[in-house]
Amino acid sequence: MARIGQDIQEAARWLEAEDVVGIPTETVYGLAGNALSEKALLRIFEVKQRPFFDPLILHVATVEAIGQWVSDFPPQAQHLARMFMPGPLTLVLRKKAIIPDLVSAGMDTVAIRVPRHPLTQALLASLPFPLAAPSANPFGYISPTTAAHVDKQLGALIPYILDGGPCQVGLESTILDFSGEVPVVLRKGGLAVEQLAALLDNLSVVETSSSNPRAPGMLESHYAPATPLTLDERLPAKLHIAPEKTGGLCFDHYFEHLPESNQYMLSAKGDLEEAARNLFKALRQLETGGYDMIVAEKVPDTGLGKAINDRLMRAAKALN
Ligand code: AMP
Ligand code: MG
Question: Which end of the chain is more exposed for a tag (fewer CB within 10 A), N or C?
Fold first, then answer.
């Protein structure tokens, strides 16, 4: 069973021994391993049951460290890195040959970010190698936002979880691809697309697609809860099933047709950042509530609301 604690040196010892550990970041908890060790990388895929076509994000301590791992760092990308890193932004850049194919799924690009959590920053600063760290959940499942979430699903398979408390952002990073002609958002996440669009006049955004999983976080049925989730603006007024067997995921007002005790309100004050922080915890809580189904509503489609709605749509797609 995993030990859970705040001992950076213990986490570092396991990583130096090419094992994998749970680490806190501001986005979601990661399952980290030495990004230059094939043994550690294979263990990440094994523990997560992740297919090898799904590449990993490289985590480094500082913006300055990025240059060591990429062959091209365009000025526009450097500017954004200085603006938003450390933080919930991942850049996809052309990689240097030293990055193992297991990290990049055989592509000539690497996704790289600088996490903002102080424990993980200290851990990275103490290590002589970067960390590869996908979210610390079984592939296709809801991402973890507390150490207890990691423990519940992966605790039997990993030796240590570095406990940094609940994640401050609660959504995965926004992935921005700078390896092509124009910058492209491959995944909406914890950094609002509007903040990027304000600085990049040639920005484009890839919408959810099952046929073109350039970032498998883009797969339509990712982030699936175990209980079927319905996302339909006309619900729950049209519900044909028993309200007592239905859980509700609402934004800032309870659904009228469901008992309040069956519902999780993401943010009573209508704050999208608070809603983002609560989203995955809410989905986990509702799916273990013994309901036959979960009904959810979209949140306002602005700022982090776009990423929240993206995750809700994928969770709903898992139904079909
Ligand atoms: P996770 O860390 O579990 O949120 O997953 C990492 C996400 O980053 C996956 O959806 C990957 O597809 C995406 N990603 C990682 N490397 C690349 C890359 N080189 N190009 C495009 N997407 C990437
Ligand atoms: Mg993931």
Answer: C
